[in-house]
Amino acid sequence: PAPAPAPQPSVPPGTIAPATHAFDIGLIGDTGYSETQDRTLIAMRDRMATRNLAFVIHDGDIHAQNDYCNDERLRYVRGVFDGFASPLVYTPGDNEWYDCPDPGGELGAIRRIFFPTSETLGRTRLVVERQPSPWVENARWVHGGVVFATLNVPGASGRGIDTARAVDWLNAAFDVAQQRGAPAVMVAWQDNPFEGGANDELVDTLKRRAK
User: Fold this and answer.
1) Contact in structure between 56 and 87 (CB atoms under 8 Å)
2) How far is it, in rounded angstroms, from Cα 45 to Cα 51?
3) Share of the chain above pLDDT 90, in %
4) What mean pLDDT comes out for the span 117-134?
5) What are the strands of the beta sheet with 26-28, ordered from one edge?
6) CA atoms 203, 204, 206, 210: torsion sign
7) How far apart are CA 174 and CA 149, in angstroms?
8) What is the DSSP string of 61-120?
9) How far is CA 95 from the centre of its chain?
């Protein structure tokens, strides 16, 4: 079972606390469209291991569209992600579930293989808060006073998601940030929120809460 989340300190409305310390993170995505790119990802993983990153976020697409929609590929990528020296937080893209012949089945496999616990991937792990089942791929954590959140919003246009649940999780991230007086919020999902055809309700929520 996931541990109970730590109590969140409250601050007067409008208060913004400074970040507690400086830190670096890694941001990657769209990896492994060929055997050559699989090797490139591992080489990048080795370089990242030298950079003392607080964590790495992967924003989806772990294989080419319509290829490798099977558990074998998912387990292979899980092994690669677990080889990262820093904690790795992964949010799915469209290639690995929505664009597969059986989207629901693939998303279920992703949840089972990548998100069985409240821990991140990687050799060093963080404990994150996950949205209640079945949306366990959506995570939230705090580092250096900053609130981070991931959402399974695959490109293009945020297809196939439960919009109401995604909006709830996005709002929850900003609620925590306001309670803590966080200096910033970072949200990672795959779809481009400023491209035509994006999920309007989710993007409107993002803009309103950021403002």
Assistant:
1) yes
2) 10
3) 82
4) 97
5) 26-28, 56-58, 88-90
6) positive
7) 9
8) --S-TTS--SHHHHHHHHHHHHT-SS-EEE---STTTTTSSSHHHHHHHHHHHH-SSSB-
9) 15
| pLDDT of res. 18 | 82
Radius of gyration for the chain, computed over Cα atoms and rounded to the nearest angstrom? 17
Q: Token digits for 170?
A: 């996005």
Hey, what amino acid is at 11? Answer: V
Q: What is the pTM of this model?
A: 0.91
CB atoms within 10 A of CB 163: 14
In the chain, which ranges are continuous DSSP H helix?
Answer: 35-48, 71-82, 103-114, 163-180, 200-210
CA atoms 93, 95, 96, 98: torsion sign: positive
Confidence of residue 67 (pLDDT cuts 50, 70, 90): confident
Mean pLDDT of 12-37: 88
Three-state DSSP state, 41: helix
Neighbours of 68 (CB within 10 A): 18
CA atoms within 13 A on the CB side of 197: 7
